[in-house]
Amino acid sequence: MTTSLETLLGIAATGAIGALTRHHLGAFAHLSLNRIAVHTEAFPFGTLTVNVAGSFVLGLVTALASAGSITLVAASILGNGFCGAVTTFSTVAVDLERMVAARRFARAAIDLALTVVGGVAAAWLGLTLAG
User: Fold this and answer.
1) Which domain, by its residues, includes 80?
2) Which of 42, 39, 56, 27 is nearest to 118 (CA)?
3) Whether 14 contacts 77, CB under 8 Å
4) Domains in the chain: how many in total?
5) Do 24 and 88 touch, CB atoms closer than 8 A?
6) 5-27: per-residue pLDDT in tens?
7) I need a surface site. Which of 18, 77, 112, 118 has the fewest CB within 10 A?
8) How far is the C-alpha of 3 from the C-alpha of 10, rounded, in Å?
């Protein structure tokens, strides 16, 4: 399968926007929500937020592509570029490992559950709203 230069540049551009969105939205959510939460140790709200938001956007993009409202190339650019850069499984893995190493098993379980259930629910919502 060959990919056009325009598609690759589109993925790169939306990936850059996604990475910047992840950085700013993640930092804002992390700082804001941890300020509200009454606990001495920070919870990875930033990672949770960007993963749930990215799942929602990918649900929208997928539904729009399935309906023919956007092209498969546009869906690839937005899905692989923007959503791929906004979301992060590797940070979830590191966050969970750190919580387990610190013997914070309940927090790790809550984070994992919120990430998976929240991500699936957000993707469903995106698919439903755009469908």
Assistant:
1) 5-130
2) 56
3) yes
4) 1
5) no
6) 999 999 999 999 999 999 999 99
7) 112
8) 11
Location of structure tokens 């992840």: 22
The neighbour count for residue 2, using CB atoms within 10 Å, is 4
Length of the chain measured in residues: 131
What tens digit of pLDDT does each residue of 26-80 get?
999 999 999 998 777 789 999 999 999 999 999 999 999 999 999 999 999 999 9
For residues 59 and 63, what is the distance between their CA atoms, to the nearest angstrom?
Answer: 6
In one-letter notation, the amino acid at residue 37 is A
The whole-angstrom separation of Cα 16 and Cα 26 is 15
What letter represents residue 25's amino acid?
L
Q: Which two tokens stand for residue 46?
A: 């930033």
pLDDT of residue 3: 86
The runs of H, that is alpha helices, within 1-131 are 5-36, 45-66, 72-76, 84-86, 89-101, 105-130
Going by pLDDT thresholds of 50, 70 and 90, the confidence category of residue 1 is: low
Amino acid letter, residue 88: T
Q: 94-111: buried (b, 16+ CB within 10 Å) or exposed (e) per residue?
A: ebbeebeeeebeebbeeb
